[in-house]
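Quick one:
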Amino acid sequence: MIDLHFHLLPGIDDGPSDLDAAVALARAAANAGVDTIVATPHVSWDWQNRPWTIVESARRMDAHLAALKIPIRVRAGAEIALTRALDLPDEELRGLSLGGGPWLLIEPPHVSAAIGIESVLLEIQHRGHRIVLAHVERCPAFIADGDMLERLVQAGMLTSMTAGSLVGRFGRTAQRFARRLVTSGLIHNVASDAHDCHQRPPGLSQELASAGLHSQTAWLTEEVPAAILAGSEIPPAPLWPSLTTRPWRLGRLLGR
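Output:
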């Protein structure tokens, strides 16, 4: 499996603080069935990581894991805060892409009143960048306005979900919205968004199986991530199970 969103690189964001912790995290991912990690440190106003720093750190980590015979390949990427992405020049954004391909992993704001989020995303896309939206099920703006997320997908953006959300690790609201996104066919990738071995551990297949998505695991964790990294066509989506029995319309505010 390919874990497309993973905070592996030591000492550069809120992931592992040192090399030993990073190695332990990579071992845990390998034990969970992952063979490729896209290292995606935060690029934000708080964590101002640069492309060359990330690429070199990922290269060193890849070599170190190989020397330890841990069967994980490490590719470079970034989780770019939307407010930071708008400010960065195109050349630097291209250097932060997932695996050197055409796709950027963009982190939407963690606030419900995210005025202009749709127009900003479309502007970045208009500049020639393809966008994967990170942990959409935890974005208050998308929870409040599911129709916006549907429009962004129709405009050509892809969505990524955190595996733990499907089994309730981020609360009931995120879990309910995650399952409704699956049922509506508005999800393209599931990643771990791992930060450590305990509070934010790696894991994909077990969470997907627990959520009733065993048959869709290969598409979500192998086929689509491979296409994103290669810059090739996204493969046709599988059939989605109904993970909720309550009628729900995109754009309807949860809890009403």
